[in-house]
Amino acid sequence: MTVRDILILPDKRLRLISKPVAKIDASIKKLVADMFDTMYDAPGIGLAAIQIGEAKRIVTMDLAKKEGETEPLVFINPELVDESGEVSVHEEGCLSIPEYYEEVERPAVVTVKYLDLDGKVQQAKASGLFATCIQHEIDHLNGVLFIDHISKLKRDRVVKKFTKAAKQAAKDDGKDSPKSAAK
Ligand code: GNR
Ligand code: NI
């Protein structure tokens, strides 16, 4: 069980373009396990590897509706191969932008092609929350955050708030860390 730290806005690594997985070996399986541990602990319904600092094209998800049940899903090298012209609006949140929620418009139905943990090519047609979530996660693999889909006014406001909080946290950290006390 390894719960890893989640990168928070404005961490620049969230803007990296993640690299395709070439081979699903033991280190990738361990990373996927860490992603589930971190996602369930948060808790969240989806996680992209870059959110724990690994720029690899891997997504975990669990959209189980019933309390106490799990339905772990893994998408390696996911790609949208089709999207509906019809759009829908969903309120989104992101573990990298805690406690901020905003409505986002996206294609209502998408088809995603990906590799499963055995390296087998799979395809799924997603609608509803599944469609929202897989598009949100594929965005992460491309360095895109859901706030990039909202108005500039709202985005600037939230980026400013998180930048300020990060600066204050860095300051507080320096103040009472053993390192600074020893100075
Ligand atoms: O936990 C999450 N909930 C969520 C709600 C609406 C739309 C997207 C999401 S994904 C998010 C977890 C996360 O940040 N994944 O990258
Ligand atoms: Ni997210």
Task: Fill in the keyword field for this structure.
single chain, 183 residues, alpha+beta, Peptide Deformylase, five-stranded antiparallel beta sheet, two-stranded antiparallel ribbon, binds ligand GNR
Word description of this protein:
With 183 residues, the protein is α+β, with helices and mostly antiparallel strands. The chain has one domain: Peptide Deformylase (Alpha-Beta Complex), CATH 3.90.45.10. The chain has four helices and seven strands; from the N terminus they run αβββββββααα. The protein has helices at 26-41, 128-141, 152-176, 178-182; strands at residues 46-48, 58-62, 72-83, 87-92, 102-107, 109-115, 121-127. Strand 6 (109-115) and strand 7 (121-127) form a beta hairpin. It is globular, with a radius of gyration of 18 Å. Residues 179-183 have low confidence and may be disordered. It binds ligand GNR and nickel (II) ion.
List the helices and strands and how they pair.
Elements: H1 26-41, E1 46-48, E2 58-62, E3 72-83, E4 87-92, E5 102-107, E6 109-115, E7 121-127, H2 128-141, H3 152-176, H4 178-182
Antiparallel strand pairs: 1-2, 2-3, 3-6, 4-5, 6-7
Nickel (II) ion is lined by residues 94-96, 136, 140.
Distance between the termini: 36 Å
Low-confidence stretches: 179-183
Would you report the number of β strands?
Answer: 7
Shape call = globular
Structural class of the helix and strand makeup?
alpha+beta
Rg from alpha-carbon coordinates: 18 Å
| Number of distinct helices | 4
| Ligands present | ligand GNR, nickel (II) ion
CATH architecture: Alpha-Beta Complex
CATH superfamily: Peptide deformylase
Largest sheet: 5 strands, antiparallel
